[in-house]
Design a protein that fits this description.
Elements lengths: L2 E3 L6 E3 L1 E4 L17 H13 L4 E3 L8 H9 L8 E6 L6 H15 L4 E6 L8 H13 L3 E7 L3 H9 L6 E5 L11 H7 L3 E5 L42 H18 L3 H10 L4 E7 L3 H8 L8 H10 L1 H7 L16
Parallel strand pairs: 3-4, 3-10, 4-5, 5-6, 6-7, 7-8, 8-9, 9-10
Antiparallel strand pairs: 1-2
Bound molecules: NADP nicotinamide-adenine-dinucleotide phosphate.
Length: 335
């Protein structure tokens, strides 16, 4: 495993992190459906065995059950994981943020969160107020560092103007979701804000296991890649299903030539991109986790990196600079 510094902190995180969204899913979880807890606990054990020291969750994942599960799994070995969690968009007013953080600490059974993140920006709450509460939490020793998620160019520019040291911006970034390359990634580079890539496998599309858009479970066919005719979408756009599956076939050809599985290549490609600190890969069992972890050791030469970027250029163009995977046009939650 390789480790990189998280933004301007002194925290070293593994380049492959474990994403915690699906880890405590139950049948009400629209994206992931039901998850067996024994598999999740075994996946966290496997992560530690592989040298992964970074795990990401949120108060919103399965109504706090993901944090609870991670708390149980790390009991007695808390020091082996850098734990990142998030406050929901509704909780950014100072008092609510303090309460949200205390709720997360309780569920995680920890007295400190290593990286506390804002899940989405809230235009209703002045940023300075939220930053004030974060700095109180840091002074109290309840959080070690703070980061944001889903901050677009406008929110990010406002944030850096305050002079606050934000460690990271967690963003949808994969070969099939490259919107951040237009403006957000250069800003993160300029200000030494580490990019944590979420949905790096495009929720399974970049493992190559779905051959057509109809093969993708409805709960996952919600992103702007898919047509708004599909039942769970909220974006109201036409999507780019043809372009997406054409890109996947091109990636598959490159992977076949390289003799490497698609998930390895897709994750490794991200680790070669500027400002990327770590990829938060979801895994539902130890086997998936181990397969994903192999990406940490994969070096891709410039020719291959360019070929993969070229294969997905059409999708990048179709989705444009809006980095909100699920909402389009004026409803995008990113600014
Ligand atoms: N900040 C935010 O707004 C935000 C948003 C989304 C995600 N996140 C974070 O990012 C993490 C990762 O994103 P994600 O879970 O959306 O998507 P992802 O990592 O792109 O995909 C994960 C899913 O792909 C499948 N998979 C993983 N490895 C595989 C392998 N080797 N072979 C075959 N299938 C494999 C699994 O589902 P199946 O086995 O069911 O196919 C797994 O749950 C989340 O857990 C969360 O921590 C943050």
């Amino acid at each position: 495993m390789n480790y990189r510094k998280l933004g301007n902190t002194d925290i070293d995180v593994s380049v492959i992190a474990l994403g915690g969204w699906a880890l405590a899913a139950d049948s009400s979880e629209v994206t992931w459906g039901k998850q067996d807890e024994r598999d999740s606990l075994a996946t966290i054990d496997a992560a530690l065995d592989e040298g992964i020291n970074f795990i990401d969750t949120a108060e919103g994942y399965s109504k706090g059950a993901s944090e609870e599960l991670i708390g149980r799994a790390l009991k007695g070995r808390r020091d082996r994981m850098v734990v990142a969690t998030k406050a929901g968009r509704k909780n950014l007013a100072p008092e609510k943020l303090i309460q949200a953080c205390e709720g997360s600490l309780r569920r995680l059974q920890m007295d400190m969160i290593d990286l506390y993140q804002l899940h989405w920006a809230d235009p209703e709450v002045p940023l300075e107020d939220t930053l004030g509460a974060l700095s109180t939490l840091r002074d109290q020793g309840k959080i070690r560092a703070f980061g944001v998620c889903n901050f677009g160019p406008g929110d990010l520019s406002d944030l850096v103007k305050t002079g606050t040291d934000c460690a990271s911006n967690q963003l949808a970034y994969s070969l099939l979701a490259r919107a951040i390359e237009y403006e957000i990634q250069p800003l993160c580079m300029e200000h030494n804000i580490g990019i944590l890539c979420y949905s790096p496998l495009a929720q399974g599309l970049l493992t190559g296991k779905f051959r057509t858009a109809d093969d993708v479970p409805a709960g996952r066919a919600r992103t702007r890649h898919f047509s708004s005719d599909r039942t769970e979408t909220r974006h109201g756009e036409s999507g780019c299903e043809t372009e997406t599956f054409r890109a996947i076939e091109k990636i598959r050809n490159s992977c076949d030539r390289l003799g490497r599985p698609m998930e390895e290549v897709a994750l490794a490609w991200l680790l070669h991109q500027p400002a990327v600190t770590s990829v938060l890969a979801g895994a539902r069992n130890p086997e998936q986790l181990r397969r994903n972890t192999r990406a940490a050791a994969v070096r891709l030469d410039k020719e291959v990196l360019d070929e993969l970027a070229e294969a997905t250029e059409e999708v990048k163009h179709a989705l444009g600079p809006n980095a909100d995977l699920w909402m389009g046009g004026d409803n995008s939650r990113m600014r």
